[in-house]
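Objective 1.3, modelling of assemblies. Example input:
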Amino acid sequence: MRATLLHQAGDVRVADVADPKVQQPTDAVVRIVLGCICGSDLWPYKSQPFTEHPRQMGHEFVGVVEETGPQVATVKPGDLVVAPFTYSDGTCEYCRAGLHTSCEHGGPWGVNGVDGGQGQAARVPYADGTLVKLPVGEDSGLLPDLLTLSDVLCTGYHAARTAGVRAGESVTVIGDGAVGLSAVIAAKLLGAGVPHAGGQGRIVLMGRHTARTDLGREFGATDVVTARGEEGVAAVRELTGGHGTPRVLECVGLKDALVQAAGVVRDGGTISRVGAPQYSEVPLGFPEFLRNITLTGGVAPARAYIDELMPHILDGSIRPGRVFDRTVPLEDVAEGYRLMNDREALKVVVRP
Amino acid sequence: MRATLLHQAGDVRVADVADPKVQQPTDAVVRIVLGCICGSDLWPYKSQPFTEHPRQMGHEFVGVVEETGPQVATVKPGDLVVAPFTYSDGTCEYCRAGLHTSCEHGGPWGVNGVDGGQGQAARVPYADGTLVKLPVGEDSGLLPDLLTLSDVLCTGYHAARTAGVRAGESVTVIGDGAVGLSAVIAAKLLGAGVPHAGGQGRIVLMGRHTARTDLGREFGATDVVTARGEEGVAAVRELTGGHGTPRVLECVGLKDALVQAAGVVRDGGTISRVGAPQYSEVPLGFPEFLRNITLTGGVAPARAYIDELMPHILDGSIRPGRVFDRTVPLEDVAEGYRLMNDREALKVVVRP
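Predicted structure (tokens):
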């Protein structure tokens, strides 16, 4: 089959790789219908040294089950399914606690003999624990929306959930990428952005790209702050009566974004980070200790949220697939990377 | 009156200062019956440069109200009271939310014309918002226990509460100082340390001073780990089935203690820090992001917890005053500092 390989920074190619096969009784093989490129794919795309053993890229996909091992019970050939961005056994104590990303048998796509999501097909370990059946057909117009359940929508939702967003509260979302925009959707779903029980109910989106922040407004942001750094912090504080917001969703992954988060969070409030950290230490020292700032979040256990979020997509109340603004055929995946890396595209669908 | 002044590192003296007087209608003047020395007093004791304007030291005291301003309604002359380690108005939105340490009109003792707690008396701003009446006499044997409501017990409790300690859970407490031992009391109060609903219910105390860890066992610790660093982490993991504990109470304030906390916390778990940070950045980068580790805690809003904790002292179910192992008269306060700094005493009462 054809799949996407990253050889080194800037050098992404589609090549022939071995066809996936059921290897374990708990495996399934899925023919991929839609994949996409993630903001986190851009970090290796920008920085990976040359390797003679390029990994298969991609960790988000919707597809049709082609074959299942004898122990697979919850999906069968012909089912349309979505895969979260890590596979997981669904039975260990972490999975039972909803932390599928710490699964004792789980792991990421594209390494250790497991395929990536930017290809024609994938072997799915622990198919029962990993895959979720979609109650629509392969030709459904909702497929891009349902594809966001793989990662980006669940990641935004993880930010909002772990931050403890509640009805009527004000929230600041830092970053207008696809995760930030998904965090706006999530904050709105949890009742932020609407005054309630004395709360101001603002969703402040911090970002500089008008097309993206415009989409953020449609998703539920009540305010957009384009300034960054101290100026941006001052603007958010002015919007929120001087004190900042009790919840801040950090959707970038850079230290500057964390500093900004600490600046806009209200005393006693919570910063949830879901941007993959490009830093090794968190700038929360004595001043933030005195202000009782909490840092939470982390990599999203997407599998834990799919069942909960899917109905909102199926009934049309949210349209997270609007973060996809371009589609490329698999053979042109390199162009998709270029578009995202050059910020010409927000998020790119890859169609095998 | 006589009060404790810190002139520079290692140079603490008792000197005459102006007698406190009611200055604002919301003030009270309190004659101090018992004060004490805090671990956090040792940081300036170790490091403060020479100053011509030495500050009054001490922020924990029990005393008798001598005079009140005309707007003070909740305490009256003759009342025995405890003061939390910051004063607060009790009415602003932070105080109403239980975050008295962020009070819009509050502040620390010993600066800005407010007296310290290691002296004969203190002017108390916002007496209604700050002081809590004690239902015992000045000669009660419970006074040392009630004095811990000023800071150390509430600080340990803040760690346990913000970490979200629940019945049956396992908790690691890092640090066998007075705060760490108070955190053990607090974890036990919240139901840790006893198997419940499938939880192992361990309270693991990490510390190296046998007299202190012995007291920790009496307070409720089920296990003591004397090793530090990687060896200590391995020991805690071995005690807890390999995964560590879901709650970790960091009662030291050094970066090494945070690294240790990250090592012993279970994936998806929470580290609460209540040791005053002697660092500017927190070592929680990509690995801890992947493990969904939360960092919470901060300076304890002691005032918020006094009403809740006092009954446990009055009925004798907890004896937090056992952290005091020495008493010095006010004139010998310098010896009290030396004893604590040299680790000859755990925590020292100062009796004016």
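The mean pLDDT of chain B is 96.
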